[in-house]
Amino acid sequence: MSTTSARLAALRTRLAANGLDGFVVPLTDEHMSEYVGDYAQRLAWLTGFGGSAGSAVVLADQAAMFTDGRYTVQVRQQVPADLFSYQDVPKTSAAQWLAEQAQAGQRFGHDPWLHTRAWAAGTTALLKAKGAELVAVADNPIDAVWADRPAPSLAPIEVHGDEFAGQSHAEKRAQVAAWLGTSGCDAVVIAALDSVAWLLNVRGRDVPRTPVALAFAIVHADASVDLFTAPAKITPALSAHLGPDVRCHPRDGFEAALKGFAGRRVSADPQSCVAAIFDALDAGGATIVEARDPCVLPRAIKNKVEMAGTVAAHVRDGAALTRFLAWFDREAPKGGLDELSAAERLRQFRNETNSLEDLSFDTISAAGPNAALPHYRVSAETNLPITMDSIYLVDSGGQYRDGTTDVTRTMVVGTPTAEMKDRFTRVLKGHIALASALFPAGTKGVQLDALARQHLWAAGLDYNHGTGHGVGSYLSVHEGPQRIAAAWSAQPGGDEPLQPGMILSNEPGYYKTGEYGIRIENLVLVEPRQAEGAERELLGFRELTLAPIDKRLVDLDLLTPAERAWWNDYHARVAAEIGPLITDAADQAWLAEACAPL
């Protein structure tokens, strides 16, 4: 079972034994997570695909992979073309493709713990029109053939102190209970891992790079909570922290508990609660109220303690990144560096802060043509040397108790071409336009997206990813509901009004396939703004990320006076706030030059 071919054959044998003509394989877990634990990496095990978004459909005589524009190149590198066809999302989808292939009488399986109810209903309708059937399986057939599948993590759940959370979990539970009262509901199911972590002021180590614990929660109208997780994860310290109003139960008791709400109104978020949750509530006679998880918005709007924490984390992280950039600038021209060694050295600089808990995602360390892959992940097989007269892109971040960071810098080694400078400067101008924006309260991310793209558009260029995603507070590096994205983006979103306290990324880019890639990413905090004569409440962005941007890639002739002023003001802040943490003389000299006014 060491090859994709053998695994695919074993799955087909299992499907045939179960009377199924096909099976849908998503990349998620029982919580509809973007990033999942090793035990849930079914898509990667089956296909070899290592991206963070995708799905597959396996039929008896063919199979297909579904990815969006971020993974067009990567999927072709990792998934065998003789075994899977490549399907582009959103031009098609797993459900649409499956319906096109379906014949009358065929039965196709899906795991109801890995799909939303809306997906199951929509796919059922598409297949019914062809006389075919979508079948919910009790046991995932991939698990049956994945002999060495890892077990779910049993790492202890950790207390996230009020000194970092800024609010007790009793206060948060009371807020959710008040929401239940307003909604006329008796309970709400909390399935998203980051919502459970936020609600109870806990963190975990069950998912790489994301400090969450595998658990479900049911919050009741009296503000008490039933928490479902593996008993081995409950420590005396956690029990003391949770108190008597949070009752802990084995994780495998969750489905039975859902069936115990006969005659009562239960709220569930159709985005994060899988189909199996709705099925169990229905089976138990509950009245289901579909509504957004009540933790989502308050989790996104950081309180004063969380805002102060993320500022401190970014200063610390910015100093580590600046040390790396100075080191890289000295070492790369000598030769001998490659993507893996550069990523490891950056991790070491962050680790030397003595406060790093983990990286916030696998570092994108990309040289030359690999930088043209927006979500590239370096491996021993893809590792490239860093060569002269080329571009190196590093997208990285850290998880600290007081905040989560995410930053991208693009560096030139040697001399850039005129085209590289033009493209970099257009990306920079878009970054500055978004960073400088003033906008009325109620503005949505989708309304701001064009600010970051306008100078690329003017040259007939663009990038195929969102411009900004939300970021958690020692939680997920990708956090909703806020987002800055085009309406046509492969990842829909951006329709949540931005509010003070929200953290987002600002990361326009440009990618020339097979040659180089450019991205400039800072995290920003939404804050109130004032303007003379303003007749509406205004908002703007405060830069959280503090690290130099490579001025050697800037075409100064393309910058306006206002853009130059932004650059100079930003780098003056970098020098003032990062400078005191830079103690090495060579690094200090490099920082002074990097932050010198244009």
UniProtKB/TrEMBL annotation:
<dbReference type="InterPro" id="IPR050422">
    <property type="entry name" value="X-Pro_aminopeptidase_P"/>
</dbReference>
<dbReference type="GO" id="GO:0070006">
    <property type="term" value="F:metalloaminopeptidase activity"/>
</dbReference>
<keyword id="KW-0479">Metal-binding</keyword>
<comment type="similarity">
    <text>Belongs to the peptidase M24B family.</text>
</comment>
<dbReference type="Pfam" id="PF01321">
    <property type="entry name" value="Creatinase_N"/>
</dbReference>
<feature type="domain" description="Peptidase M24">
    <location>
        <begin position="313"/>
        <end position="527"/>
    </location>
</feature>
<dbReference type="InterPro" id="IPR036005">
    <property type="entry name" value="Creatinase/aminopeptidase-like"/>
</dbReference>
<dbReference type="GO" id="GO:0005737">
    <property type="term" value="C:cytoplasm"/>
</dbReference>
<protein>
    <submittedName>
        <fullName>X-Pro aminopeptidase</fullName>
    </submittedName>
</protein>
<dbReference type="GO" id="GO:0046872">
    <property type="term" value="F:metal ion binding"/>
</dbReference>
<dbReference type="InterPro" id="IPR000994">
    <property type="entry name" value="Pept_M24"/>
</dbReference>
<keyword id="KW-0031">Aminopeptidase</keyword>
<dbReference type="InterPro" id="IPR000587">
    <property type="entry name" value="Creatinase_N"/>
</dbReference>
<dbReference type="InterPro" id="IPR032416">
    <property type="entry name" value="Peptidase_M24_C"/>
</dbReference>
<keyword id="KW-0645">Protease</keyword>
<keyword id="KW-0378">Hydrolase</keyword>
<dbReference type="InterPro" id="IPR033740">
    <property type="entry name" value="Pept_M24B"/>
</dbReference>
<feature type="domain" description="Peptidase M24 C-terminal">
    <location>
        <begin position="538"/>
        <end position="598"/>
    </location>
</feature>
<dbReference type="Pfam" id="PF16188">
    <property type="entry name" value="Peptidase_M24_C"/>
</dbReference>
<dbReference type="Pfam" id="PF16189">
    <property type="entry name" value="Creatinase_N_2"/>
</dbReference>
<feature type="domain" description="Creatinase N-terminal">
    <location>
        <begin position="7"/>
        <end position="137"/>
    </location>
</feature>
<dbReference type="Pfam" id="PF00557">
    <property type="entry name" value="Peptidase_M24"/>
</dbReference>
<dbReference type="InterPro" id="IPR029149">
    <property type="entry name" value="Creatin/AminoP/Spt16_N"/>
</dbReference>
